[in-house]
Design brief:
The chain folds into two domains: 2-130, no CATH class; 151-259, no CATH class. It contains six helices and 13 strands. The chain has helices at residues 90-101, 110-127, 199-210, 229-237, 243-246, 255-259; strands at residues 2-12, 15-26, 31-34, 40-45, 56-60, 66-68, 80-85, 158-162, 165-173, 176-179, 215-216, 219-220, 224-226. The protein is elongated and about 60 Å long. Mean pLDDT is 84; it is low at 13-17.
């Protein structure tokens, strides 16, 4: 059975609309809601048979609490919800969902956060009539964290393997970071909606231009020395996120955890 349902006061493409007409499809044991452009699909299911990389999968435990499925099927699933977004970087979108609804602490580049935030608000509006609510995201402290260099950091390799970038980085002096040769750089700078380059992207391209003789086909051919973790993030993946959370040791401990002043 197919129905048309209307939601009031919903955000799309950074603009608030008075209403949006959605398509509701009901089958024997499932229901599916889809936006008019078919970009976003929310599906209610009795159970998940497998973990899917191209879908955000949510489920409730026996107490009715919602969880975000990650690497393995849980032993118990009482209600299941699948969220599918066309033409999306699903791993990034999954992290946005984790941060927004499940107290995640993932580093998200600003351009992705801006792109996916209206989708998050649409999901919230779609699920509200069904009395589905997730854990609220925690409040972040307003004061910027302070970090302190220690000599022992100079011997610890920190790794970047995200945002189409891959590198090994050493924080070898207070104002000196070394990116080892062979680092892969994110190839294309994110653009503003009008097609222009933002300040961060221009700064990143300036850093790359200064090191142009050490880069070939978006791979560094020699070690690169930069002055801060901020420069490292801009140079590797055009920043737009908290790079203290992106750089991690071999066990997944972030540079922030090593150096933040508590």
């Amino acid at each position: 059975m197919h129905y048309k349902i209307k939601l009031d006061n919903i955000k799309e493409n950074d603009l608030w609309r008075k209403s949006m007409e959605l398509t509701l499809k009901i089958q024997e044991s499932t229901a599916q809601i889809q936006t008019p452009n078919q970009q976003l699909t929310v599906q209610f299911l009795p159970i998940f048979e497998a973990v899917q990389a191209d879908v955000v999968q949510l489920y409730t435990d026996k107490k009715g609490k919602w969880h975000l499925m990650t690497e393995a099927l849980p032993e118990e699933m009482h209600r299941c919800l699948a969220i599918q977004l066309q033409e999306a970087e699903m791993e990034i979108f999954r992290r946005v969902i984790a941060n927004e609804f499940f107290k995640g602490e993932y580093a998200i580049p600003a351009h992705y956060q801006k792109e996916y935030q209206p989708i998050v608000e649409q999901i919230t509006a779609i699920l509200r009539p069904f009395a589905i609510q997730f854990d609220a995201k925690p409040k972040r402290p307003g004061q910027k964290a302070q970090h302190r260099f220690k000599k022992e950091f100079a011997t610890i390799p920190f790794y970047v393997d995200d945002f189409n970038s891959k590198a090994t980085v050493y924080w070898q002096k207070r104002n000196e970071f070394r990116i080892l040769a062979g680092a892969t750089l994110m190839p294309e700078a994110p653009l503003n909606k009008d097609g222009s380059l933002g300040f961060g992207a221009r700064f990143a391209l300036t850093l790359r231009q200064e090191q142009a003789d050490k880069i070939k086909d978006n791979v560094t051919t020699e070690d690169i020395i930069l002055k801060s973790v901020n420069e490292v993030g801009h140079f590797l993946y055009f920043a737009g996120t908290n790079s203290w959370l992106v750089l991690k040791d071999e066990n997944g401990k972030t540079l922030d955890e090593y150096s933040v002043v508590k």
